[in-house]
Amino acid sequence: MVLSCSYLVDEVRRTMGDGAAHGVKLRYAVETEPLGTAGGVRNAVDLVRGLVVVLNGDILADPDLTAMLRFHAERGSRATLYLTRVPDPTQYGLVELAADGRIQSFVEKPEPGRVTTDTVNAGAYVLDRSVVTAIPTDRPVSIERETFPGLLRDGVPFFGWVSGGYWLDIGNPAKYRQGQLDLLAGKVATTVRPEGAGHDGRFIGADVQVAADATMAGPCVIGARARLEAGCRVGPNAVLGARCVVGAGARIEGAVLWDDVTVGPDAVLRDCIIGAGARVGAGSHLGATVVLEAGAVVPDHARL
Q1: Which of 22, 156, 180, 256 is deepest in the core (most CB within 10 A)?
Q2: What confidence tier does 6 reach under pLDDT thresholds 50, 70, 90?
């Protein structure tokens, strides 16, 4: 598996490493300058052999890739797009299909009166190697605006595979948080589970310290070596990374905390996202839409 990276590459490497902890072998294709969505794929293709499967990194989904590969082979396709149905297609680029699944046209974010289908590009592609190697290497190239329309123009066998599974674009903080909670709720078909037994929807990592009168309400995830102090309450719908500290009397609900976050006594965090290493002062209240960057410091009794 190859990660095509251009932004915060060192952070990605620090988090993912060589992939061994996740049961895969990872290699990295790094863009020294942004190459576009097609250029990034072209930059990575020499590290793989044969058929190329591209997965966008800002999508949470559970498609049956084996079925998609079979569909690609059975139709003699040279490029196959994973498509999903959405209730409001005006937010996305539409993909119109013939009865046999052949792609006929793309419609970019239409007005409500111009909606002709509810199938949209879901961010995963199966591409014959010749399609990828044909991408220019001397400039940035968009796969959506240049490569795919070019395949249509040239009459290349080009199909859309529609899946009814879970799909979510997690490209903004609100959707990212929704994805975390959907994973907790079991809405996504996955073999990856948080550390811990999951009793009553609570996943508690190794060496977690919990005061006798602290409360954990499922569903929730408490990362390894976290500490929950007297009278605090975590959950429901809370995700705490490793080594988080929740002060006495604090309340955390609907929030996602990355590693090494410290929450002061009597602070209240609801429906927010807190970056790694952030410190939230005593008695502070953080509500919906709040997103703290890594290392941020919130003073005591702040209201955000």
Answers
A1: 256
A2: confident
Residue 258 sits in a domain of what CATH number?
2.160.10.10
Instruction: List CB contacts of 50: < 8 A, sequence separation 6 or more.
Output: 129
Domain boundary among 139, 167, 195: 167
Confidence (pLDDT) at 132: 95
Largest CA distance in the chain: 68
Residue the block writes with tokens 């702040």:
302
Q: Is residue 65 helix, strand or coil?
A: helix
Name the average pLDDT for the chain: 93
User: What spatial distance separates the first Cα and last Cα of the chain, rounded to whole Å?
Assistant: 41
CA 259, 26, 160, 191: dihedral to nearest 10 degrees? -50
Contact 166, 182 (CB under 8 A): yes
Of 167, 202, 232, the one marking the end of a domain is 167
pLDDT in tens, 177-230: 999 999 998 899 887 777 777 778 899 999 999 999 999 999 999 999 999 999
Question: And the tokens for 118?
Answer: 């509810």
